[in-house]
Specification:
The chain is of the alpha/beta class. About 35% of the residues lie in helices and about 25% in strands. It has a single domain, classed as Rossmann fold (3-Layer(aba) Sandwich), CATH 3.40.50.300. The model has no long low-confidence stretch (mean pLDDT about 90).
């Protein structure tokens, strides 16, 4: 399997042949605009195709939000795919990796060597059937707030996105801060989706900028996700900035 269709009408209209397996995709736009909810559709398609997903939880306080948002947006029950799911929880207060159960670990992903070890550990714990392994993470920019590791983790993330073709990567990134660094990550990705949001009512728009070796429809569309779901993501994102950035800024 070298490509995967997403099986969602509005996304299939934009990307009629889907995305390449073992490619990298960045969903980029303002913080708190609901970008991970677009990614949820990729995750649902991946799991339904028999693949496995590593959830890299950088901003969510618990995996419960991932379960709830996936169900709300894609109607998928993540508990039905527990054998094909692994959760990496960012914990910037520890030095390395702590395994919390067979399908979960906490890791200080700010450190480049831990970034690599955590992804490898997660990938070795789930099947590689179907399209293989998708690594899905949101708020990747949070890792750039460490004064000690900022350049190192940026270079590691760029290397992973550009050069690791053993897995498929899907990350959402906020452009609200660290714009130069974010542009480097966008340039490294095979596929790039830019987003923006509007308020009153809260709406999300997306535009495909590039899609490696496959056709796509140009032009901006409004993402058909309810404003209530978008607002929930914004509230979680606001919480994460207040909780996570101060901790990372001390490293």
């Amino acid at each position: 399997m070298n490509k995967i269709k997403l099986g969602v009408e509005w996304l299939d209209n934009l990307m009629p042949e889907g995305i390449l397996v073992n490619s990298s995709t960045i969903i980029s736009g303002p913080g708190g605009s609901g970008k991970p909810l677009i990614g949820n559709n990729f995750v649902a398609a991946w799991l339904k195709s028999g693949g496995s997903v590593v959830f890299m939880s950088l901003q969510y306080p618990s995996k419960d939000f991932i379960f709830a948002s996936l169900k709300k947006v894609t109607h998928i029950e993540l508990s039905e795919y527990k054998n094909n799911s692994f959760f990496i929880q960012l914990d910037a207060a520890i030095s390395g990796i702590i395994e919390t159960n067979p399908k979960e670990l906490k890791a200080n992903m700010v450190k480049p060597e831990i970034w690599i070890k955590a992804i490898e550990k997660a990938s070795s714990s789930i099947p590689k059937d179907g399209p293989g392994i998708l690594v899905f993470g949101s708020a990747l920019n949070l890792l750039l707030f460490s004064p000690t590791y900022e350049n190192q983790i940026l270079n590691q993330m760029i290397d992973t996105i550009a050069n690791d073709k053993t897995r498929t990567y899907l990350f959402s990134i906020s452009t609200s801060l660290k714009k130069k660094e974010i542009e480097n990550l966008e340039n490294a990705a095979d596929n790039l989706i830019m987003t923006r949001s509007e308020k009153e009512p809260f709406r999300l728009f997306m535009n495909i900028i590039k899609l490696k070796d496959l056709p796509y429809k140009k032009g901006e569309i409004e993402v058909p996700i309810p404003s209530g779901a978008l607002m929930e993501v914004k509230e979680v994102a606001d919480h994460s900035r207040k909780r996570v950035i101060p901790t990372i800024s001390k490293i």
